[in-house]
From TrEMBL, chain A:
InterPro entries: FecR, FecR_C, Ferrdict_sens_TM. Gene3D superfamilies: 2.60.120.1440, 3.55.50.30. This is Ferric-dicitrate binding protein FerR (Iron transport regulator). Residues 145-234 form the FecR protein domain. Residues 283-350 form the Protein FecR C-terminal domain. One of its GO terms (molecular function) is sigma factor antagonist activity.
Automatic annotation (TrEMBL), chain B:
This is RNA polymerase sigma factor (Sigma-70 family). Keywords: Sigma factor, Transcription, Transcription regulation. One of its GO terms (molecular function) is sigma factor activity. Pfam families: Sigma70_r2 (PF04542), Sigma70_r4_2 (PF08281). It comes from Runella defluvii. GO terms for biological process: DNA-templated transcription initiation. The lineage of its organism: Bacteria, Pseudomonadati, Bacteroidota, Cytophagia, Cytophagales. Residues 25-88 form the RNA polymerase sigma-70 region domain.
Length: 356, 194
């Protein structure tokens, strides 16, 4: 143990190695040391307390792994490193290099694609022909009905699909990204997963997000395609300029003239336009009867919710469900009222023992 | 310090192709790196991926990697650039400065720390008010200085700014803290006599 130091300022104490080690590791022998220190210098108690407070603030939230967890992570990292210590050429082909080439190929392909002659009636399927070939792996849902319908995606995100619109998506979740091809109009509520960005492709634009809610409109016959954000942040690229994203945040919208692929505006959203549209609806509740909430959800998502009215009579919910997909809304409500749910034949069934 | 000698030895062995030496470096600095990475407000899995990438790259480029006086500083600096790259690619944060997590410790063991609870809570809340007005990069400089014990030159290199800026960041942060430290005892004085 080093001799007692006699700091004159809080910063001096903060810079003291013994103090730092004490604060970080809190060993018992260090505690004895500081206890004694405070007895030798009672007038420094103030200084000590301020330094402790400052250190805790600078350190912030603690989130320590156990030794076992660290050992496990170390093993994982070592396992990911190829055993080629004799190979000296490898370093030249480091990851950065490979990544840049990959990026260059993607940009190259995108640019090449842009200059391909486009048939007048280019449809979503022809644009992604090779994808359509593996149709077996894809699900296609079209809304031919008279009202919007909700489509539940495999990753628990949801789309409210307008009349005359369709979406296509992988049956199984891909490990790298989530992709949906849209024709027409859909309101998307994306489950949060920072590891797997969520892409919505249409003929004229691509929207990329990590977890948020927004509306995309791109009907074939219409001259303008539109993206409107309800919450979170999205990146929109027009097909004409695939590497020039425009970022939209809450209540912003972007339109693209489909003929020329020209971005024409990025204005603030006017909620008054269509207050009943789901993109403008609020799902914020304070002690709201759960049956009322189910009523609103039923109407917004056009999906019947079945439950025992009598049992749910005294159940209420407080909180906001704006930023989460349909099933997540249901799950969160069920969690609060200690109920369970299942999705059967295009309806949601709630099982509850009631609330007291 | 004994551990810096060892760091130096480990670093040399790793550069000569000893995978176990790299493993020991990982084990020694995993917590430090993870804690720093999490401050940038990205999720745990992403931080862990960045750390893994960092070591993978270190291994693959070991023939080009130089000796370093501080392994810790080298690793923190590399992790930061991996995280910035992650933010650029994954989140399209091109012009923004990264965020900095200012959340407080979940619980404060006042008894172990030899402080009185009400004093500690008062001090912490008042200091927090001051520090919360600082921009993210100044909080980061403060963290690297007083938690990771990096020198001003090392902080400048890590955060990719010049030394003068780091000195300015720290100066500003400490002025905020000091203004608090001058007022606090007065508060207790008043409390005692009311």
């Amino acid at each position: 143990m080093k001799p007692f130091s006699n700091p004159h300022s809080v910063t001096e104490l903060l810079e003291d190695e013994a103090f730092q080690r004490w604060m970080k590791e809190r060993r018992r022998e260090d505690r004895w040391f500081w206890e004694e220190w405070l007895q030798v210098y009672p007038e420094k108690r103030d200084l000590y307390e301020q330094a402790v407070a400052a250190f805790l603030l600078i350190e912030g939230k603690e989130d320590n792994l156990t030794d076992d967890e660290v050992a496990l992570k170390t093993d994982q990292i070592l396992a990911s490193i190829p055993d080629d210590s004799a190979n000296n050429i490898k370093p030249l082909l480091g990851w950065t290099w490979v990544r840049w080439v990959a990026a260059a190929i993607v940009i190259g392909l995108a640019t090449w694609y842009q200059f391909l002659p486009k048939p007048q009636d280019a449809t979503l399927t022809s644009r992604n022909e090779e994808k359509a070939l593996e149709e077996g792996k894809w699900t296609r849902v079209s809304n031919t009905g008279q009202q919007p319908m909700v489509v539940l995606l495999p990753d628990n995100s949801s789309v409210v699909l307008s009349q005359g619109s369709s979406v296509r998506f992988r049956k199984e979740i891909s490990k790298i990204k989530r992709e949906v091809f849209l024709q027409g109009e859909g309101f998307f509520e994306v489950a949060k997963d920072a590891q797997k960005p969520f892409f919505v492709y249409t003929n004229s634009l691509t929207t990329k997000v990590l977890g948020t809610s927004f509306q995309v409109r791109s009907f074939e016959g219409e001259t303008v395609a539109l993206v409107k954000v309800k919450s979170g942040k999205v990146a929109v690229t027009s097909v004409a300029a695939p590497n020039k994203p425009t970022f939209l945040t809450e209540h912003q919208q972007l339109s693209i003239v489909t003929k020329t692929n020209e971005v024409i505006q990025k204005t603030s959203d006017n909620v008054a336009e269509n207050p009943t549209a789901i993109v403008n609806q609020q799902f914020t509740y304070e002690f709201a009867p759960v049956s009322e909430i189910f009523g609103q959800l039923q109407e917004a998502y056009h999906l019947p919710i079945q439950y025992d009215h009598e049992k749910l009579q005294s159940c209420t919910f407080t909180g906001q469900l704006n930023d989460v997909p349909f099933l997540e809304k249901i799950r969160l409500i069920c969690l609060t009222i200690e109920a369970t749910y299942e999705v059967v034949d295009d309806k949601v069934i709630i099982h509850s023992q009631g609330c007291n | 310090m004994a551990s810096s000698v060892q760091d130096h030895v480990l670093w040399k062995s790793y550069r000569e192709g000893d995978k176990q030496a790299l493993g020991m470096i990982v084990e020694r600095y995993y917590r430090t790196l993870r804690r720093y990475g999490l401050k940038f407000m990205i999720d745990e899995a992403a931080v862990e991926d960045c750390i893994q990438d960092l070591f993978l790259q270190l291994w693959q480029n070991r023939l080009q990697i130089n000796d370093t006086c501080s392994v810790k500083h080298y690793l923190l600096k590399s992790l930061r650039s991996h995280i910035i790259q992650f933010l650029r690619i994954e989140k399209h944060f091109t012009h923004q400065e990264p965020d900095w997590d200012t959340a407080l410790p979940k619980e404060i063991d006042v008894e172990t720390l030899l402080i009185q609870e009400e004093v500690a809570l008062f001090q912490i809340n008042e200091l927090k008010r001051q520090l919360d007005t600082l921009p993210a990069r100044e909080r980061e400089a403060l963290y690297l200085k007083y938690y990771e014990n990096l020198s001003v030159a090392e902080i400048a290199e890590t955060m990719n700014v010049n030394r003068q800026s780091v000195s300015n960041f720290l100066q500003k942060a400490l002025t905020k803290l000091r203004s608090r430290w001058l007022v606090a005892p007065l508060y207790w004085f008043i409390c005692l006599f009311l």
